[in-house]
């Protein structure tokens, strides 16, 4: 978008200007019919007062706070900050500097960064924001442009695709999740080579890939190979998401990203083909899972082959990207808060005891629920979401033109509003139920996380299975504060070779019931 026109369309608060305009343009006839008793002098006086008030309101609060345009330097610098430090880090920077509603520019496009609960709530519940923003070329490069669900901006198609996800991630699909998650976690724990240096991130990621495959696909998969491709794909996704078009003119860069994305797409395509063959050869189809439903939809001409592949790809990458890292942060926070660990284990002992976790136990594990919520609040993996205004709107008094990019900085909102001990890790923050508008780890409304229920069930099942058998000990001195992290598309630990060893943890077997380590 043209920078100058972006500046000219700056967002202004709505108020008296409109009233003045209305009064000024009101036809004498209309007034005469509507208010016969008001004289011309009174009308002029009202008009004058309105003009004065409008002028005052203009000087008081003219535009959304943010860096100034300054001949285009403002847009350039804010864009460079987003590219350089990552979307999450830059959003926090601007909210801390200018307040909870800020206007910046990404790729020349006006972008609002919101961390005020009322504004966030307005966007989340409103059907006017069911689209996201991102570079078209970048999204095409990773197969997400008008495909799949996560960044699909063709609203009609997205709605249709979302019904397949909703069906798979709620209802009967959700019922099997406890059993599948417990058994996948147990298998991966039993397969550990040793307990001294466990690569926990890899263990958690392989476990969730296994769970996702069993629930949504159900074909033989080499988890480690698939995981490597998922990690490369994720890296490409956050690299290309807000890059300018010129970036994609350089073939050698473009090709590198295309190849990384293509590798995962090819791998998923062959898994879908395998599923198709299995379905053709089966005498009777008992378990019609997510992929099977999509294949039927393709057979009936409702979805294209590319869309089926992209949907399967996205359901497979959704959990390793979010859930495994969340669990990793949770294990660190648990060791930093031994009193919470004790409460958690006592709760598991009372509700589950020596047997395996069952569906009915989940709602009884209150401390576990509060612990997970507090971790998602205090140190989230996904601490913002990206939306786009589909038509003109007003947010907290500011006029928002159609096409404006929106970043909902929920991570910052969780630390600045409502919670009593907002900057501390404390289960007291969830002693009472937090109202939805103040606690949005999964977003809410029509474009919220469609996997939010299954994610909670998976996290509970994995934590109970792991913690009831092992005490998990990070390296001496490793805390969340000193863990090197990046915050681009999501908050992640840095996993370069030199840090990787530091991230491994020691597993000490526990004596069940007494919660002492053996
Ligand atoms: C701790 C785990 C997770 C967290 C914190 C999380 C968080 C989120 C958030 C914040 C969004 C954006 C919502 C918005 O724009 O309002 C989202 C979207 C989404 N999530 Fe999750 N998620 C998690 C796990 C999962 C899992 C396990 C799945 C599926 C198996 C999943 C599938 C999706 C999908 C498909 C979307 C896009 C929805 C759409 O655009 O319509 N998520 N998630």
UniProtKB/TrEMBL annotation:
Signal peptide (UniProt feature, chain positions): none
Keyword Membrane: yes
Keyword terms: Coiled coil, Heme, Iron, Membrane, Metal-binding, Monooxygenase, Oxidoreductase
One Gene Ontology CC term in the entry: membrane
Stretches that traverse the bilayer: none
Entry-linked InterPro entries: Cyt_P450, Cyt_P450_CS, Cyt_P450_E_grp-I, Cyt_P450_sf, Cytochrome_P450_Monoox
Localization (cell): Membrane
Segments forming a coiled coil: 254-281
UniProt-annotated binding residues for heme: 449
Highest taxon above the source species: Eukaryota
Record field: catalytic activity: testosterone + 3 reduced [NADPH--hemoprotein reductase] + 3 O2 = 17beta-estradiol + formate + 3 oxidized [NADPH--hemoprotein reductase] + 4 H2O + 4 H(+); androst-4-ene-3,17-dione + 3 reduced [NADPH--hemoprotein reductase] + 3 O2 = estrone + formate + 3 oxidized [NADPH--hemoprotein reductase] + 4 H2O + 4 H(+)
Enzyme Commission number(s) from the entry: 1.14.14.14
Bilayer disposition of the protein: Peripheral membrane protein
Pfam families found in the cross-reference section: p450 (PF00067)
A biological process term (GO) from this entry: female gonad development
Cofactor(s) this protein cannot do without: heme
Alphabetized GO MF terms: aromatase activity; heme binding; iron ion binding
Major location (coarse): membrane
Primary role: Catalyzes the formation of aromatic C18 estrogens from C19 androgens.
PANTHER family, alphabetized: AROMATASE, CYTOCHROME P450 FAMILY 4
Family in the record: Belongs to the cytochrome P450 family.
Protein name: aromatase
Organism: Epinephelus coioides (Orange-spotted grouper)
